[in-house]
Amino acid sequence: MTADASPSPSRAFVSLIGAGPGDPGLLTLRGAGALQNADVVLFDYLANPELLRFCPQAETIYVGKKGFSEYISQAQINALIVQKAQENGGQRVARLKGGDVFVFGRGSEEAAACVEAGVPFEIVSGVTSAVAAPAYAGIPVTHREAARSFAVLTGNTQEGGAHYERLSGVDTLVLLMGVRNLDQISADLIAAGRDPQTPAATVQWGTTPQQRVATGTLATIAERVREAGLEAPAVTIVGEVVRLRDTLRWFDTSQEFGGALAGRTVAVTRTREGASALSDVLRARGASVLEVPLIRFAPTGAEAALHARLRDLGGVSWLLLTSNQAVTALFTHLDHLGLDARHLAGVRVAAVGPSTARSLAERGVRADFVPGTPGARHLGAELPARPGDVALHLTSQVAEDELARGLEARGVRYERAELYRTEPAQPTEHVVERLRGADVVTLASGSAARHLAALAGTDFAVAAMGPQTADAARAAGFTRVTVAPAATLEALADAAAQAIRGGAAATP
Ligand code: SAH
């Protein structure tokens, strides 16, 4: 290191990230990494908002709107990217764009704005819808026999015929942004010499649970698309490769016979970490999932007291940890104190359930006790502590009293230290808007019901994890409540499906 009197280098940096076509699994590792490091994220209509879960720390700005009109102009977006990168002495900006950055994405203009402002940037290539939407419809853009070349073109161009004649030697055409002008485009292509009998397909919302496909020929595809009611965003593929869908179709087969959740949007509310398992179950059934965090974690307001308690654990028999967040926060604080897992050598550690136990194990601590059934009540009743033992519960400011009562009833001395705080989250307007568009909202706890009501009102069909949650939901003002028949994720997904079928009315 050299001693240098110049000011510290600016953090200003822009990642122009291809978000992929919709399936969140098609984001690249580099894209996920850039999101995790971002201070600010700008995203638009075609970038799946589910990807924002990689950057809960970042300020998020929605800059795109459905259709061709723009929410804010491209010039404004360029200026905003540069401005956000330069703010606060330099920030890391992630600009999340649908598909690939440079395929009809105006990414080059955003990169040019960075160059002009002297802001360093990177391009994180993404999976383009031009290839992925056909692929998810079972259509390969090339094939050893059927197609040796493909071209990607925009249907927005006014060039028409002359433009298409230049493409006459290309086997497969993939048309983006063309669904509105499909009549004109197919007429122009036929006029430019393409056989009207060439197979054609249009794929709307490719790679997502809402994917829909219409097939026909160049002569009929516009009509088929109209009949099926397909709209933007969609790609149209023209070429012999479209025939391969008959044998290679894979992604959208199950959905045609899918249950009530196929193609529907389920909002999954979270009042703690770890709801993604439910999201996976819902996605596997074809639902589109919107994860809505209702709380966020904040530093403890009593750090001095906490640190004093942690430094000297003398006299403590048991440490009680009742969430993954508690485990994370505990090790962060130990680290601040210059300590590590060895500091816990003299105390026994209990976890509220297997997930918390796993978090401990990841940090080298094997839980001495985990109740057979997860939950504060079972921990309080079953903890193998003796009367007079001190049990220190490291938790947030809103810990349930159930654990304390259970232990005190057995003569165990319960002590609590505030390790972190939970506060109501402030979802962006965009998330609230999407929430309002959801078919059903899942609630895993009474507090989720109360937070949701405070945040976005009660005009939702909700699926509740159990009778207690359902009661809390009704008390909070929700009227369309469906109760999961058992306390499992599968049952909650069943309840969501039932709510969509209108089952809420059938539930007392
Ligand atoms: N950069 C993007 C394209 C942006 S232009 C990419 O590489 O995919 C916007 C057009 O992309 C839309 O009008 C539509 O034609 C296409 N598109 C984007 N996502 C799509 C999807 N999931 N399914 C079908 N078409 C999509």
From TrEMBL:
UniProt GO molecular function: uroporphyrin-III C-methyltransferase activity; uroporphyrinogen-III synthase activity
Keywords (A to Z) from UniProt: Methyltransferase, Porphyrin biosynthesis, S-adenosyl-L-methionine, Transferase
GO biological process, alphabetically ordered: methylation; siroheme biosynthetic process
The keyword Amino-acid biosynthesis is assigned to this record: no
Domain of life: Bacteria
Database matches in PROSITE patterns: SUMT_1
Pfam short name (any one): TP_methylase
Protein EC: 2.1.1.107
Signal peptide positions (record): none
Keyword Methyltransferase attributed: yes
Domain annotation Tetrapyrrole methylase: ranges: 14-221
Domain Tetrapyrrole biosynthesis uroporphyrinogen III synthase: 277-493
PANTHER family in the record: S-ADENOSYL-L-METHIONINE-DEPENDENT UROPORPHYRINOGEN III METHYLTRANSFERASE, CHLOROPLASTIC (PTHR45790:SF3), SIROHEME SYNTHASE-RELATED (PTHR45790)
Protein's recorded name: uroporphyrinogen-III C-methyltransferase
Organism: Deinococcus phoenicis
